[in-house]
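Worked example 2:
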Amino acid sequence: MGTVTRGTTNPNRLRRMDRWIAAAHGAELRRAADPLAVDLGYGAAPWTALELLHRLRTAAPRTRVAGVEIDPARVASARPYEREGLVFLRGGFEIPVPGSPVLVRAANVLRQYDEGEVAGVWRRLCARLAPADPATGSRGGLLVEGTCDEVGRRHVWVALGPEGPRTVTFATRLGSLERPSDLAERLPKALIHRNVPGEPVHAFLRDFDRAWAAAAPYASYGARQRWIRTVRDLTADWPVTDGPARWRQGEVTVRWEALAPLGW
């Protein structure tokens, strides 16, 4: 279920998303009886699935990865790269794996879809996630859906649980950034057309730029220190959910409700 994407991919393109997933979701993968992750729509080459396996296993050594593609030719070309813990399957949003994945990563997949289709796709994918288990403290599986540039320097993604969207993360190579609103072109499909006056995401990026400008004196200590100061100032008005350890990576994560489109 779904349509074939352009398939554009490059080695190391999704490194920022992968590192965030390992840090934010590693505990769920470690506690899961079957820590299955799905790389949905991995593209014309299998590099992102191979890298996902490697990075997740640094946080949860038992993790398995299934690369899922709707194009049978792409699946056939990826099969020689299968190994212990890694398989490639033909499929789409139905996610043709047994059981309930603990992670679904869908990077640069929904970019080609209409905005009105996003909520339905999210619901379908969230319904396939491992459910929450209050007895163990598990919040359930995680869907990470977002967009990045061709070499992975700028990336924005939404993290969703079985209950729906939770957070939005902005991640960048700080040396490539002139101002935070440069990330607007990488907003995921649910938000990219809402970057207009009156919408929450537009107000957030406006405030982000203002805080960045106010933190200009910190640039003498480097882009990282300027970013950290900028995000620290943002926390006065926006529900930032992470802290300096992630900010140092060129990231900031904000609760979804604060950026959700009007009428969502």
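The mean pLDDT is 95. DSSP finds nine helices and eight strands in the chain.
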